[in-house]
Design brief:
alpha+beta, 2 domains, 4-stranded antiparallel sheet, about 45% helix
Length: about 180
């Protein structure tokens, strides 16, 4: 920046110095504002970035959907196995001096106390939902008090992408997942 020496200046000289100082400051502010304006993003650059992010996002949807469908099938298979084991153990231990069973409908698994689902004590019911993308054969599995014996049954769970898991219960109440 130019150095100004303070002296007695005439009006014309003072005007010239102040005018040149204003011009210098104006040029300096113009350079600074242009530098600031050149550091941003253009609309085209922002649209390209947005398109890339959307493409990546939309390409992951099928993978995440399949992952959720597979995990639903696996979770519900293990949940059914646990309910069957709970019913079997409750029957063997003669909990509440009764048989215990699991009723399977299209939308719920129900752990119940009684000789059948129709003759159960609803106060002991524990129901668990089945996701809409899983189908299962409807059935009623009842375990005998003290022995845990039941009828042999194969329960097939199928998800929306046609993967299946099979839960097998044999006559002595052994539960196997395939």
């Amino acid at each position: 920046m130019k150095e100004f020496i303070i002296k007695k200046l005439s009006g014309k000289q003072l005007f010239q110095y102040s005018y040149s100082l204003c011009q210098y400051l104006h040029k300096l502010s113009y350079r600074v504002s242009r530098a600031v304006l050149n550091t941003g993003f253009t609309l085209v650059e922002l649209l390209i970035i947005l398109a890339i992010i959307m493409t990546i996002g939309f390409s992951t949807i099928p993978f995440s959907t399949n992952f959720l469908t597979r995990s639903d099938l696996s979770n519900k298979t293990h949940e059914l196995s646990l309910l069957l084991n709970t019913a079997k153990l409750n029957s063997i231990s003669a909990k509440e001096n009764s048989n215990w069973g699991v009723n399977i409908l299209s939308s719920t698994f129900t752990l119940y106390k009684g000789n059948s689902f129709m003759n159960r004590d609803p106060a002991f019911d524990q129901s668990f939902g089945i996701p809409i993308n899983i189908t299962i054969t409807q059935n009623d599995i009842n375990f005998e008090k003290l022995t845990g014996n039941t009828n042999s049954v194969n329960l097939v769970l199928r998800n929306a992408i046609n993967e299946t898991h099979t839960v097998t219960v044999n006559q002595v109440g052994t539960i196997d997942i395939q």
